[in-house]
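User: ok so my PI wants both of these folded by tonight, can you help

Assistant: No problem, let's get them done. Here's the first:
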Amino acid sequence: QVELVESGGGLVQPGGSLRLSCAASRSIFSISRMGWYRQAPGKQRELVADITSAGSTNYVDSVKGRFTISSDNAKNTVYLQMNSLKPEDTAVYYCNGVVIRNTVSVYWGQGTQVTVSS
């Protein structure tokens, strides 16, 4: 079982920055992949960025060059640094963890609201 707790959301003006944090209840070395998803009103949840336990990263095209996902293994925390924010980045952001052993287990945080508006 893995508990994921997000923090860092809020209201920011266009062009501003925010850093989201996702704290895991166990070592992230044991989590095969961690990612950030977002869901805007009336839209499907989409993958924003993810990072494997080996450190490989992946981004959706719309955030490449603006967002950076990283991990701090000592703190069991994954971050999403979001720069040059746009109104279309407004959504609830969810932390996701996938543990692959004999089976695949997927875990979600409770979500944190990010609103980009002037």
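One down. Here's the second:
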Amino acid sequence: QVQLVESGGGLVQAGGSLKLSCVASGIIFRINTMAWHRQAPGKQRELVASITGEGSTNYADSVKGRFTISRDNAKNTVYLQMNSLKPEDTAVYYCSAQAPFSTRFWGRGTQVTVSS
């Protein structure tokens, strides 16, 4: 059974930092592209950042230079370091995992709230 469990969300002031973690089980972690997505109230879910099994990364323009995605294959964990947070970063953040030619699995999400 695949499980993705996010943690690290919370309330932070604008300009602050948070680090999200997502621990995966039930998958061959090293072959999965891991990603962070977010969904703000009334908006569609959007891709924030992704990282392949080889470590190649991709970021949404809105977070480039502020967020960093990384992974630890030994710990089956993907991270999202978020710096210089803005109120518009407020959303539920979801972790996903997708192996080549396979379905995407989702975590339940963690709330990030940035106050102005």
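The mean pLDDT is 97. The longest strand covers residues 18-25. Good luck tonight!
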